[in-house]
Every structure is written in structure tokens, then in C-alpha cells.
Amino acid sequence: MEFEAAFKRLEEILEKMQGENPSLDESLKLYEEADTLIQVCSKNLAKAEKRIETIMKNRDNAIALNLAQEPVLTNFEA
Q1: What are the tens digits of pLDDT across the range 9-52?
Q2: In sequence order, what are the residues at sequence separation of 6 or more whose Cβ sits closer than 8 angstroms to the Cβ of residue 10?
Q3: Which domain holds residue 8?
Q4: 72 — phi, psi (to 5°)?
Q5: Domain total for the chain?
Q6: Phi/psi of residue 63, each to 5°?
Q7: What's CA 15's distance to the chain center, in Å?
Q8: Distance CA 73, CA 75 (A)
Q9: Which 3-state string (H, E, C) describes the chain?
Q10: Measured between alpha carbons, how far is 44 from 54 in angstroms, rounded to an integer?
Q11: Which among 37, 73, 29 is positioned nearest to 53, based on CA atoms?
């Protein structure tokens, strides 16, 4: 599933839970679906971050790698 589709569905679930006052069973189903969608979004974001980091190069025009020969990642969170 693509990030945008998963994120849109998460928004729909949030609106439904806030506005429609679903039953307990329905709330649990929505919560489980949301949990799965959050994992999908997180994985997609991690992949995107890794691709961006791979594209970013150090001053010598070489990809910066760690000891495991993986691209060095930068934490973009504030």
C-alpha cells in the first residue's frame, strides 16, 4: 500500500472515531486497522529516508557509509 493511501485511510478512521461514536467492537476493529496502517506509513517513511540519505553525498562526492557499509542516516526530527 502506498503512503498516501494509508495516510488517507488513517484520516478517515480518525474522523469516524471522533464523529460517529462507533460501538466498542467497531472501535477495536478501527484501532487494529489504524495500527496496521501506522506500521505501513512508518515503513514507507523509513524507506524514503534511506533513499534520500543514499542520494545525499559527502563533500568528496561519495556516499557516506557507516562501518556496516550502509548509508549514514541523519535524524530529521526536531
Answers
A1: 999 999 999 998 899 999 999 999 999 999 999 999 998 888 77
A2: 34, 37, 38, 41
A3: 1-78
A4: -70, 125
A5: 1
A6: -70, 130
A7: 20
A8: 7
A9: CCHHHHHHHHHHHHHHHHHCCCCHHHHHHHHHHHHHHHHHHHHHHHHHHHHHHHHCCCCCCCCCECCCCCECCCCCCC
A10: 15
A11: 73
The set of cell numbers assigned to 58 is: 559527502
CATH number for position 44: 1.10.287
Record the cell numbers describing residue 10, joined without a space: 488513517
- Provide the grid cell at 36: 496496521
Instruction: Kindly state the cell numbers that stand for 38.
Output: 501506522
Mean pLDDT of the region 40-65: 77
Q: Which three cell numbers stand for residue 53?
A: 540519505
